[in-house]
Design a protein that fits this description.
Elements: H1 27-57, H2 62-87, H3 100-109, H4 112-123, E1 129-135, E2 142-148, E3 159-165, H5 172-175, H6 180-187, H7 193-201
Antiparallel strand pairs: 1-2, 1-3
Helix pairs in contact: 1-2
């Protein structure tokens, strides 16, 4: 990415493929979606390169300000897709009732099923974006948030524990644009709770 002092290292694509698809999600849908992830990585790297070069050289402009703004969209899209694809599995780990995440879910929502209904309701809110389960690292509290696009609506300081892509590109191939609710339920048995619980505990 050039020879600038302190130049950022390039981000890389997830080394993932789903050649047979996943139960409930077709290989065509997943291949197209992974290609979109590649685009977020490419644009994140390019924006970081351009912004760092302009700042180092003192070339401040309206374009640079817009590049900085765009970086929030592309970088957040890259990170959320990383979380989303890593949690999907044809052989997912089940929730561990002894894990601190599951205990917190039970404390806050009363049961796993009650939590899931609240999470699914978040995921099916009107709009373009992501349904997320977030953790406040200061006290372990959980909250749901609908992140518009990728970067809007994030409670500052909270960490992503579980992210479900609900842009139409995540489901329309298999479920049609009106099938978001069916898609959310199709993803439920694919969630690898080993990954999600590790995200809470890190």
């Amino acid at each position: 990415m050039g020879n600038l002092p302190g130049a950022p290292m390039a981000y890389t694509y997830l080394d993932l493929t789903f050649p047979e698809g996943l139960p409930g999600l077709s290989k065509e849908l997943l291949a197209d979606h992974l290609a979109l992830h590649r685009g977020y990585v490419d644009r994140t790297n390019k924006l970081l390169e351009v912004v760092r070069a302009a700042e180092t050289e003192g070339r401040f402009s309206l374009e640079l300000k817009e590049y900085r703004r765009r970086l929030g969209f592309e970088f957040s899209g890259m990170r959320l897709h990383e979380s989303y694809f890593r949690m999907l599995s044809a052989t997912p780990g089940a929730p561990d009732p002894t894990h601190p995440l599951q205990k917190r879910i039970a404390t806050q929502w009363g049961s796993f099923e009650a939590w899931w209904k609240a999470f699914a309701d978040t995921c099916t809110m009107p709009g373009i974006g992501w349904g997320t389960l977030l953790k406040d690292p200061t006290n372990g509290e959980l909250a749901h948030a609908f992140l518009e696009d990728h970067q809007n609506g994030v409670p500052v300081g909270m960490e992503v524990v579980l992210a479900l892509d609900v842009w139409e590109h995540a489901y329309a191939t298999d479920f049609r644009p009106t099938g978001r609710g069916k898609y959310v339920e199709a993803v439920r048995p694919l969630i690898d709770w080993r990954f999600v619980e590790a995200a809470y505990g890190r």
